[in-house]
Design a protein that fits this description.
Elements lengths: L2 H24 L6 E12 L16 H16 L10 E2 L7 E4 L6 H4 L8 E3 L7 H8 L7 H21 L6 H8 L9 E5 L5 E13 L14 E2 L2 E2 L4 H14 L4 H7 L3 E2 L10 E8 L16 H15 L4 E6 L4 H13 L2
Parallel strand pairs: 1-2, 1-3, 1-6, 6-10, 8-9, 10-11
Antiparallel strand pairs: 3-4, 5-6, 7-8
Helix pairs in contact: 2-5, 2-10
Length: about 350
């Protein structure tokens, strides 16, 4: 027998072994399962910004909140993060949606029942049957009933606040109002097959409704450290604009940094686990027709100050939005923000 005929006998096992090794190496190792649950807080600034005659907007806060409440189930609850291989939301969601007050004194002033403005799926624990019956309106206490309570209570609060608006100290709210509960850091760990872990944890989200002008709380030159203050008023924005234009600088960002402008950062470790969406920021520099009356506009400057402030305060992530043109646009943005966390 020639060596040419014998050669394949020795090569084939090696080739087969190589092929099997290649297949084995391409098999993905089992991974731990991360299950996220939305912990969403709506915090409205109930100052005179809600006065439609003073600050006209295409859509009211209450209309946007109604859209979120109406879409809680199925749009928010059933979103399953299919684009993320390591995270899931297919079953057993423990989502929470609540309204919190930047100014806690308004709860008694407006006669609000805060429990009427809350959905809490976490209370069902691992009881999947009761949770499903609640969501699909097959129980005495059900989502349809709670949805009506939520919207009615929020609307009544909005009407009361329009009649008697109150200051909203947003700086102090981020410092002292964001507490455990609004930011849930707990991780519920379960051992699965092959010693893998299933980790349930909350995605903490703050929907902050404000015009962006921080004019309540500490105010005035005594509450500033150089060009950094505890507030951001219309006067602050106007003074910054004048100084920037007088400087001859071509970069507003560079001028801001070089001259130490900003809002004094908040020290609250819970912010590291909080995603903040700021809605309905209002540009007071626009004219009645919606056009810019000055450059840079208030909106340009608001973005600069707020972005620096939230970054320096250690917020996990954030997005700043101007006034929306419709409920649909506003909710679409909120949903996109939730899905991208």
């Amino acid at each position: 027998m020639s060596s040419f005929n014998i050669l394949p006998i020795y090569i084939l096992p090696a080739v087969a072994l190589s092929a099997c090794w290649s297949c084995t190496s391409e098999i993905e190792e089992p991974k731990n399962v991360d299950v996220i649950h939305y912990n969403i807080t709506i915090a409205p600034d109930l100052s005179n910004r809600i006065n439609g005659q003073l600050y006209p907007k295409p859509v009211r806060d209450a209309d946007i909140v109604d859209a979120v409440v109406d879409s809680f189930y199925p749009d928010i609850v059933t979103y399953n993060l299919a684009h993320r291989t390591s995270k899931t939301r297919k079953t057993g969601q423990r989502d929470i949606l609540r309204v919190d007050f930047i100014n806690q004194k308004l709860i008694s002033r407006y006669g609000v029942n805060v429990l009427d403005m809350q959905f809490d799926l976490k209370r069902f624990g691992r009881n999947q049957e009761d949770r499903v019956r609640y969501l699909t309106n097959q129980s005495n206490q059900n989502l349809a009933t709670d949805r009506g309570k939520f919207k009615n209570a929020y609307n009544e609060m909005s009407v009361a606040s329009e009649r008697a608006p109150a200051g909203a100290d947003i700086w102090s709210y981020l410092k002292d109002g964001i507490k455990h509960g609004l930011v849930d850091r707990a991780v519920d760990t379960t051992i699965l097959k092959n010693n893998l872990l299933k980790r349930d944890y909350s995605c903490n989200v703050l929907l902050l409704f404000t015009d962006g002008y921080i004019e309540a709380g500490l105010h005035g030159e005594d509450h500033c450290k150089g060009n950094k203050c505890y507030f951001l008023s219309s006067k602050t924005i106007e003074n910054f604009r004048k100084a920037f234009k007088a400087s001859g600088s071509t970069s507003m960002q560079a001028f801001f940094e070089e001259n130490g402008y900003g809002i004094i950062p908040v020290e609250n470790p819970l912010l590291r686990d909080l995603h903040v969406l700021v809605l309905e920021m209002y540009d007071r520099s626009k004219n009645k027709n919606g056009g810019a009356s000055v450059h840079p506009t208030d909106w340009d400057i608001l973005q600069l100050f707020w972005s620096d402030w939230l970054t320096q305060s250690g917020v996990k992530s954030f997005k700043l939005l101007p006034t929306a043109n419709s409920e649909t646009e506003a909710f679409s943005t909120i949903k996109s923000f939730l899905e991208s966390r």
